[in-house]
Amino acid sequence: MARVTGNIVAVYRDLGSDAELQALLQTMDAMQIDEPSTRISRELHRATLQERSGDLDGAALTLQSALAEAVKHGMRGQEADTHKALRDLALKQNNLSGYVEHNNEFTRITEEINGKDTATKLAMQAKQREIDVVQREHQKHMAVLHSTLPKHIADRVARGEQVNDHYDNAAVIFLDIVGFTTISDRIPSGHVVHLLEQIFTSLDTVCERHNVVKIKTIGDSYMAVSFRSFADAQDDTVHNAATCALDMIASLDALVITMPPALGDTSWTKDIGDIKVRIGIHCGPVTAGVIGTQRMQYDVWGDTVTVASRMESTSEPGRIQFANAVNVGSRHAVTLHERGSIEVKGKGMMKTYWLE
């Protein structure tokens, strides 16, 4: 209440409403005011009223009382304000020595406060620079994690969580470029990486479009998984993988291989021919997680992965082999046609299907 009343007093002082100012000062005198700053402000207002009424000596005494309290409580800002008021009052009283004394104190305290403020500001700026450096390093760290791990996995790793997941129903895709060894022998060795980059970048785009997670590349092979937790319903897990695999083939059929001019003569690109791939898919339970601290990778393990790899190696160019007679849905006319039984390493005879 005293603080609010003091604010109103300041308004009346600025407006020159001395009668209202006097009345509110009397109201404040009747209050028990515990805050020294509020008491000092009240006395500064009182001195203004006294000065306006011509009681310069009374104003000086009031200001001296306020100054003593400011010094007592170490309130440097209000101490400077009081010296300033005493300086201005000494000028009106033609008190040259008083003017010099209070002006010097006002200047000294103001410079001290400003010096502390400057030091504090500089310290805060230095601390902010430290924080900015830490944030930039964190952003770089997160950028690296996001470039090597799925975003939600990267966020878990950044929180210090040990990533160890199990999925009851996942669809694993393996893709291999047909005759890549022959292709790489026909082109300059320095161009192999650029060729694979264009192929795998195209596949990355396809995976993102179908809510399928790229796991890794192994030489000229590509592995991706459709997880139950990333799909809206269980049948979507298989359907996403199926449509993704079909889109992979279509995307590579439409891919035009180009090379940067900086690599020199690129006329050899016409000799590459069409990029053909074999794809295998298998559905079932998998375990997934992040291992190690260097070159981290979200990897997937289990018999489902092994069978998917076997489906790829026994597939045919431009075709997708399924090891499950599952319903992949009717959307986009995705269907399975029985291939028959084939010998699968480590599994014996298995009935498989072509995805079309």
Please provide a written account of the structure.
This protein is α+β, with helices and mostly antiparallel strands and about 350 residues long. The protein folds into 2 domains: about 1-115, Tetratricopeptide repeat domain (Serine Threonine Protein Phosphatase 5, Tetratricopeptide repeat, Alpha Horseshoe), CATH 1.25.40.10; about 160-355, 2-Layer Sandwich (Alpha-Beta Plaits), CATH 3.30.70. It is built from 11 helices and 8 strands. Strands 1, 2, 3, 4, 5, 6, 7 and 8 form an 8-stranded mixed sheet that branches.
Sum up the structure in keywords.
356 residues, Serine Threonine Protein Phosphatase 5, Tetratricopeptide repeat, 2 domains, eight-stranded mixed sheet, rod-shaped
Using the coordinates above, name the CATH class of the largest domain. Answer: Alpha Beta
Which outline best applies?
A: rod-shaped
Low-confidence stretches: none
Number of discrete helical segments:
11
Residues in helix, %: 40-55%
The CA-CA distance between the termini, in Å, is 81 Å
Let me know the CATH homologous superfamily of the largest domain: Nucleotide cyclase, GGDEF domain
CATH fold annotation of the largest domain: Alpha-Beta Plaits
Largest sheet: 8 strands, mixed
